[in-house]
Amino acid sequence: MRPPPVPEEAAALLRGPRILLRRWRDSDRPALAAINADPLAMQHFPGVMSAADSNALAARLEAHFAHHGFGPWALEIPGVVEFAGFVGLLNVAFETHFTPAVEIGWRLAPAVWGQGYATEAAQCALAYGFTLLGLPQIVSFTVPANLRSLAVMQKLGMHSDPGDDFQHPRLPAGHPLRLHRLYRLTRQEWLARQAASGKPGQAGE
Questions:
Q1: Strand partners, 102
Q2: Which residues pair with 179 in a beta bridge?
Q3: Contacts (Cβ under 8 Å, ≥6 apart) of 181
Q4: Fewest CB within 10 angstroms: 1, 37, 101, 115, which?
Q5: In the prediction, which pLDDT does 62 show?
Q6: Which of 176, 180, 195, 184 is nearest to 156 (CA)?
């Protein structure tokens, strides 16, 4: 069964020139499992995921929508691929120096990397978070070696401070991926960026 339609205003924010962010469908799960089992897609995570673990992740993401009204949306590229990964907003589920917080994150199939889809979709998610949700700040984080994701954060206007780097509390001491770099963007910074681009309150360039 297809998910119910989102309100018109939300739907407008979640559509970019080339992309569509939408609620999850059961038919997305095999494609998600393929991404989560791909060593390239998961190179900056502790490991690849089994099909069962991937389905459990999909269930958790859908539960986040049910509890909070937002989450990581399924990314569709109309005319190209029905499910290319996910992009969206998530309550940070652990405690550290910057929580409580809402993060923006993404995970795309390697076949669509390098074409600006993550940035375009993330701009839509930021617009949703700062306008419809009224969030004062959105964060993002990854390991320092994940240069692709760090580049997306920078294109979104997010900024980092070495003093914000942190040891991920869900990874054991000494784990090679434990150090994470934090990026931040406030609503005021986002609004100023939109005004400078001539598109105040819109999803961005």
A1: 91
A2: 167
A3: 141, 142, 143, 144, 150, 160, 164, 165
A4: 1
A5: 94
A6: 184
- Whether the Cβ atoms of residue 106 and residue 55 lie closer than 8 Å to each other: no
Tell me whether residue 200 is exposed, middle or buried, using C-beta atoms within 10 angstroms of its C-beta: 0 to 12, 13 to 18, 19 or more.
exposed
Q: What's the pTM value of the predicted model, to 2 decimals? A: 0.92
In 3D space, the residue among 152, 125, 133 whose CA is nearest the CA of residue 14 turns out to be: 125
Q: How far apart are CA 118 and CA 155, in angstroms?
A: 10
The burial class, CB within 10 Å (0-12 / 13-18 / 19+), for 203 is buried
Chain centroid to CA 8: how far? 22
pLDDT tens digit string along 46-79? 999 999 999 999 999 999 999 999 999 999 999 9
Question: Does residue 199 have a pLDDT over 80?
Answer: no
CB 106 within 8 A of CB 153: no
In sign, the C-alpha dihedral spanning 78, 79, 80, 81 is: positive
Q: What is the pLDDT of residue 8?
A: 76
Tokens read off for 150: 């760090």
The answer to whether 88 touches 104, Cβ cutoff 8 Å, is yes
Q: Do 121 and 106 meet the contact criterion of CB atoms below 8 Å apart?
A: yes
Task: Determine the Cα–Cα distance for residues 199 and 164; give it in Å rounded to an integer.
Answer: 30
Distance CA 122, CA 203 (A): 9
